Here is the input.
Amino acid sequence: MVPHFGVEPQQIQIRTGCCDSMSKFLQMVNIQKNYGGVKALKGVDFSIDQAEIHCLIGENGSGKSTLIKIISGDVQPDGGEIQIEGRHYPRLRQIDSLNLGIRVIYQDFALFPNLTVAENIAYSQLVEKGDRLVNWQEIHEIAKAATEKIQINLDLHELVGNLSVANQQMVAICRALTKDVRLLILDEPTSALSKVEIDQQFKVVFDLQSKGISIMFVSHKLNEVLQIAHKVSILRDGEMIATLPREEVDNDKLIQLMSGRKITYTRYKGPETTNGKLLEVKGLTKKNNFADVSFSLGRGEILGITGLLGSGRTELALALYGIAPADRGSVVIDGKPVTIHSVQDAVRAGIGYVPEDRLTQGLVMKKSVRENVVPIVIDQLRNKLGLLDNGEWRQTVDHWIDELGIKVAHRDVEVRTLSGGNQQKVVLSKWLASKPKILILDNPTAGVDVAAKSSIYEVVRNMAEQGVGVILISDEIPEVVNNCNRILIMRNGRLVEHLETQDVTEEEVQNLVEMTGTQQQQISGELR
Amino acid sequence: MMKKLTKQTEFYLALLIIALSIFITLNNPRFLTTENIFGLLRSFSVMGIMSVGVLFVLILGGSPDVSFTAIAQVVQYIVVILTLNYGGNIFLAFLVACALGVLMGLLNGFLVHKFKVPTIIITIATSNIYFGLLYVFSKGEVIFVIHPMFREFGQLAIGSWVGQHGTPYGLSLLAIIWLLTLVAGWFILRRTQIGRNIYAIGGNEIAAERVGINVFKTRMFVFGVIGFLSGVAAIVHAAIVQSAIPNIIVGQEMNVIAAVFLGGAGVFGGKGTIIGTFLGILLLAIVSNGLTLLGISTYWYNVLIGAVIVVSITISAIQQIRQEKTRVRVQVEGEVTA
Here is the structure.
């Protein structure tokens, strides 16, 4: 379903020819782990061959991170056997794991933003050596050797905090390579990378694998998994559902194995006639972000905006919501021109925004559901004295918990204890409570399991039916194709396509998104 | 290279100091004489020595220690009484002062590490305890006559020249102690592993733990250093003032902390340099000295220092905002990249 791209055929050859099933690097049998009463892993079998790229996939809470922590020795399993290079480890400690050449690149990279690239790369080795004095020449030699190993060009004197996410990841990988590595574990390595950066990362991964290093690639992005894996293991609810060679899986099958059900999209029809233009954007421009963006949005319409990371889609949303206002262009809402210079302006104009990163931008994690639902409507919860009316507050919160089906024991529970899907519903309810005219959703189902996904779609469609204009920004093509009336595609900061969803297939949209500017020019040239 | 230089706080601070020096010299040529400069270095040596300890703490975590003046105060009083009663020499005085300082510093470090409370909170508490106990036992009594060795020590200097009014002067040993402290601080921060570990912890404590840095040991070291330097400063202060007044050092902590922030240390930790810290104190010294030389009431000192801090913070904030504005988030097609 999702087309393959970016992988040369000869690479596929290397991949299929590599795996000698006799040489298991790591073998885990019947691993169990309980946290309190919760069974995080229920008897998991897992193994990695030498020089194998093994992808581990699973929804949030399926036990992926627990499994990584057991392999890295951070966490001790409650039961089961671990065998590494033929040797049994009844108790695998952190130091054992390190000495065996197992390295984890965590999602946050564990880097020092205030130190240089060179020092970041060399740090573990320096600490291990335990010298009292620092030899800067040695630091640069270590760093240079590591960057040469993966043939990457980094300014060793630059501060890591000034690097792009992709380059920070390369620094983390380089640090891992300063010692003898046998197994490199990459935890959600592509979540913040652009297409070009992912291709570069895959090159590095293939290169390391060809040098005999095993790679464990933990991800939820299935098209990437399908590009890179020799084998795929699927975890669900703490159980290993299957371990399959790449040849035997495709996108649909992986989704089914991951969620335990088949996800079927029903296309959104939307209103027959969009009565009146709710929002009209003309020539919106922000230097170094996007240029000359014009589109309109009708009442009850769901408008999809998609494009690669770095295409300007999120930047456009930030401008409409006043976080990073545009330099030029006009915005008309309900026929009235509005200027949006700040978030307050946007809220006053009836615009709501659900950010991409709900953890840092959408929610106060340590506060309760009750406190997270009401910030925008808090003025409406006052009684005659101007003080907060607790009864009204409680009613409002309970109404939304009920309305959206938020699974929570009580409204006073802290949101950080909720699952990703339920957290996202809390963010949504915050905006729904404010009754916006226009709601901008930025990747609303990122890191959310399948069940929660479809209920979020349900909520969004409901809103649209009530007349709200929804802008749905997403990089999941099926999501926009099936939930939107129209789709806009952004590339290099400009709107390049405008599609009616009833006319297109997911493949067509995917191809348009992936296409580079020159390719498109070629095609349109040929057509001419 | 030039571009890199203009991004540094130290660069702007140096410019400001030069501009200020020129202005003062034009109005009173006495400013730029070795006699005046040497005198300045001597009288600001106490703050200068303590500032290095403050820098260490700020690099480690951004939250300042506010108890170092209380520590110096307590140490000074104890050592002055001990030397009055039992005699002794200046080395022994330093030894006892530093040992006491380290002990009190380590207690701070232990509490900060154990209870994971911001340094400023713990040290507000301990500074009250240290200083409070001093008042309980001293009853606030000023010791006007202290052991003569402090005065003798304070008069030691390198070189001998004749000043404007015919008085001899040289580079005071007290100023040299400050300069040595700066060199030692630079060496530790730049050339030793534990120094680098301080930066690493300040940058990302969790990552520091993951690469195998002993965070507890490093933290205790840092609080040991500030305690040690408080001890040194206590003796240097006694040598300058030649009396023991139980509330004379306490109250200066905010100026020292401000100077270190001025020098480029950040409130989030992981940032700050010895040269910046030195320049920060130097700026304070020049402002204070300049007021005297220009015949302006020294009551203006605090107002001016406050204004300087506001201006320098504004400059670095504007820099950051400008940087953010010109950052290329998206390579927009057809847009001319500057």
